[in-house]
Fold this sequence. Notes:
Chain A has a two-stranded antiparallel sheet with strand order 2-3. Chain A has helices at residues 6-36, 38-44, 53-83, 88-97, and strands at residues 2-4, 47-48, 51-52. In chain A, 78% of the residues lie in helices and 7% in strands. Chain A contains 4 helices and 3 strands. In chain A, helix 1 (6-36) runs antiparallel to helix 3. By secondary structure, chain B is an all-alpha fold. In chain B, the strands form 2 sheets. Chain B has a two-stranded antiparallel ribbon with strand order 1-2. In chain B, strands 3-4 form a two-stranded antiparallel ribbon. The termini of chain B are far apart. The model of chain B has no long low-confidence stretch (mean pLDDT 82). Classes of the chains: A mainly alpha, B mainly alpha.
Amino acid sequence: MRKVEKAVADKYFKIRTTIVAVCLLIGFAVSFGVAIFAEPIHQSGVTIMGMPAHYYMGAQGSVVTFVILLFANAIISDRVDKKFGIDEKQNEQISGGASDH
Amino acid sequence: MDQQSLVSLLLILLTFALYIWISIYNRAKKTSDFYVASRGIPPFWNGMAIGGDWMSAASFIGMAGTVMMLGYDGLAYIMGWTGGYLLLTFLLAPQLRKYGRFTVPEFIGDRFDSNKARLIGAIATIIISFTYIIGQLSGSGVVIGRLLNIPSAWGVMIGVFIIAIYATLGGMKGVTWTQVAQYLILITAYIIPIVFMSLQFFGNPLPWLTYGNVVNELGAIDRELGLSEYFAPFDQGSQAQFLALLFTLMVGTASLPHVIVRFYTVTTMKAARWSGAWALLFIALLYLSAPAYAAFARFVIMNEVVGQPLDELPAWTEPWINTGLLEFADTAGDGTVSWEELYIDEDIVVMATPEIANLGLFVVGLVAAGAMAAALSTAGGLLITISSSFAHDIYYRLLRPDASDAKRLLAGRIAIFAATIAAGVIALDPPGVITQIIAWAFALAGGTFFPVLFLGVWWKRMNAQGAIAGMLGGLIATLSYIFLAMSGVQLFGIADTGAGVFGVIVNVILVIVVSLMTPPPSQKLQEEVHDLRYPEQMTYKDGEVWMNDGSDK
């Protein structure tokens, strides 16, 4: 066991929270955001991949964005963990010990 | 029995044999096997199991038809049921995993150190999961019944029997691996028919790239017929209802106990993040395909059925007309079929597509086996959740804390068996329309659990009084709005399916106000919540963070 500086621990939490906030914001923009402006988008006649843009975002665009966000989060978080010297093997060992609650 | 029924039956029986073989092979030997599969499932496979767990008979059979009938308004289901995984993976799953319990009620009970909160959580879990499972069982009954031309009650009993065997034997470990197999079967069955449709229409095997043109053409056909365009927004309901439904489905998805518990089966927070990503990828394959089904099916109906003389309809329509799922009322008396005179049951779209595209006996049978896989995999996950609420939260944590491992395992098995039988009996005569019952389950799950779980892991000042007030208030607000909306009293044009919005708002307000008016939780509980900010290797103790690097223990 060694002590982690408060500033370092806080920085870790802040980075993780920022990732969460940014990803959720993008996620809401492509789903709720587009649905709020569906009527003006429909009237504008913009199309993506052959269909009206608002329909495309509901049927494909939002879902694909969600998937990308989740993978981006997993990859970036792994990098952050590595930067802070977190060893996944140790994590497994520690949480393994807590498995029989 | 005709040739088609025989092939379908054979394929369904083969898949059943596979599921039972998997659960015998992965028999549960101790309680952690039974509830959380010993926490040893790799994220990729857990993601696939979540996919099987999540996609139910309603997703498989019903969703494409819903999108076909509702047009743009049906897309709330597509975005809501996938977007929920964002909330779940970002806000709840890793933290709940680090807290390291067996069930959702157990987290609530231990986080707030309150057996009252535990009991409310357990009862709400049982109500939500039970509502949901009735839909699955009657869904599987409809599939078997329609394919084999037997009463759907027999279908329900066959489904119940199969699930009871494998869930009781294998527990979570068996269910995890059967869900993986069920996912693979259901996704193959779902995608093959539209790949062939896309080939027949465009000579391109990727329906996701080609159906856009069909959507545009559907709009043109609708304009010609004087209907409102297929993709016109908010044609079937208000915009407020669309947004409320979207919100309800998202928070409901993030707080369904049988989904959350799947994140307890992996090793670490990192594994929980990866599970969420893989899960949504596997789920998206089906949800991206549903609008393609909808577009192709509507296109075929518009071209081959609408405007045709009644005696010259294509051959595939005949069996569906005979079962009453496709009906024509020639109200105009002109001998031809128009869109307004057509009644199409939403459930026939996926089942009829292989017949429309002339794909032959094997593919029709495969779709049937896929629909069964979707119903059974969800039912399996739900049964584990109901059983753990009884046997773990109520029996072990509240009534008999000194029960031995063997006794707890036996209690879990008895609970699962009893729950299957009880759900089967109710499913023989379901108390309402299946899709509606399922929509209520989402509203109830979101309204009762989401704010309590979310604030519970992110806000250490939240206490037991706040949690209890929030859960009860959210539950009551959701239920009352469902009843009010059903009897015609609606706020902002929001229907009963969007009731989760009101449940969540009431819940959040109650949690915050009541928590702040009552004493803060103990130092130990607050530290445990603070600890959830960091990965397993970092622990928070007495205001300091420690890194466990294995140097001394």
